[in-house]
């Protein structure tokens, strides 16, 4: 995971530092910045354990070139010595790295024999020393030769003392270059790090490297070293979308944006939507793949495909796909669902299904030009705008909206699909307005709970999984979601006096979920009904409108609010839950 930045512009260290703040969602256990030292071809380094939060960068005033890194530890514990940037032995090379050098042990051994010493426990430090080892060939070539020796994934940016250029490269981890007026360049894991300076972006492909100097940008193939053509794109995201504005946290901002993000999900290019429908209609079999919340969307998608289009599609966790890959070869269609488009488990599954097996891969992605988008035969973009909070909220409902639109389109009723999703967008606004206060009050009541259960049947079942994930990941209260009937096959043993249980109920499932609610209530549970109708079985009723096949989009919204307010009540940071990072780029 981790986020990297490189800046060639006035006031570079402060700009790198500001860029890192918007990349903190990629990892936030430690951070660092480096700039060239006043003389001697060396670097001034500042590295800290902990979050950037309200820290200030102290190095590099007046510097026009800088590197920065925010870390999610993989190799080596969270400590200053393991923070990036890392310097080579003689201090002449500085690097920041996102990814994993799989053969770092062998490389370390090789370099140690040549007299190199290592000052950290990271895999990344070998990159700095490899570059120093090859430096006689020139900086750019030294980086290239080093990359050729590395097995694994990387997005790197490197500096060499005395040279006013950043050399960067990618393979399997995201990297984008921003080109601003006045010959300024920004290198980052994600364009949000430089959006305030420019919307002109060049997305590097895997196995490409770039040389950025003042007013200079060259892209080269890592393999041959030869220059290659590149395209500059104009980003559609706005700076307001990556700022909190009047909100206290990104989580509540992004929850509140759902009326517009759900509505934006239906704005799909006709040609792409038609292509999706044609691929899916001709499929021998269909599998929906995702991780975490995106996997929950996949399960919801399988219900939509079944109930709306009469099509059987299976949802499988991307990490578990290898056990079933043999059933999805030529003639099969993989629908890969991901906010970031960089989730390693999903990319691996897609690679196996599409490449080796010959299945068609179509994807639903939020981040343009992400690795998943490139690995897919075609993609529908979610149009949700940047999601900065580590938790998925608006991207989850956008995924549901697109899967529902696909189900309707497959049933030959694209118009009906768009209509119901637009109704859902309007209803989302009324739910947000009407349930905010109630959720705040409920959070106060539940803040000291140890454990909580959520049940739902039919298409509300995947919502119960998502609801439980939201609550536990942000408030650290243990929560579990179940299909309504499952609770009594074991877990009901844990229900005792006062145990909170959320019951997600719809017109279609009400009679059975009411029985399940009563079973729990009679054992002392405190029942919170999320339903369009009051019910004697509920101790509290959170009203959401009945919207038929779009119910899953409605049911989750009050729970997102509840999760947010539970985090606030319990003093947790809703934007950066402990141990988590937004883009999970490790397997
Ligand atoms: C939960 C959450 C994660 C992600 C998962 C997949 O709130 O955000 O469970 O859904 O890591 O990420 P993407 O969608 O980027 O593939």
Automatic annotation (TrEMBL):
UniProt-listed Pfam families: GATase_6, SIS
Residue ranges of every copy of the SIS domain listed in the record: 276-416, 442-577
Known catalytic reactions: D-fructose 6-phosphate + L-glutamine = D-glucosamine 6-phosphate + L-glutamate
A GO biological process held by the record: protein N-linked glycosylation
Keyword Acetylation: no
Cited InterPro entries: GATase_2_dom, GFAT, GFAT_N, GlmS/AgaS_SIS, GlmS/FrlB_SIS, Ntn_hydrolases_N, SIS_dom, SIS_dom_sf
Domain of life per record: Archaea
Key words, A-Z: Aminotransferase, Glutamine amidotransferase, Repeat, Transferase
Enzyme Commission code(s) on record: 2.6.1.16
CDD domains linked to this entry: GFAT, SIS_GlmS_GlmD_1, SIS_GlmS_GlmD_2
PROSITE patterns per record: GATASE_TYPE_2, SIS
Membrane-spanning residues: none
Entry GO MF terms: carbohydrate derivative binding; glutamine-fructose-6-phosphate transaminase (isomerizing) activity
Domain Glutamine amidotransferase type-2: 2-233
Keyword Secreted: no
PANTHER family named in the record: GLUCOSAMINE--FRUCTOSE-6-PHOSPHATE AMINOTRANSFERASE, ISOMERIZING, GLUTAMINE--FRUCTOSE-6-PHOSPHATE TRANSAMINASE (ISOMERIZING)
Name this protein carries in UniProt: glutamine--fructose-6-phosphate transaminase (isomerizing)
Species for this entry: Candidatus Iainarchaeum sp
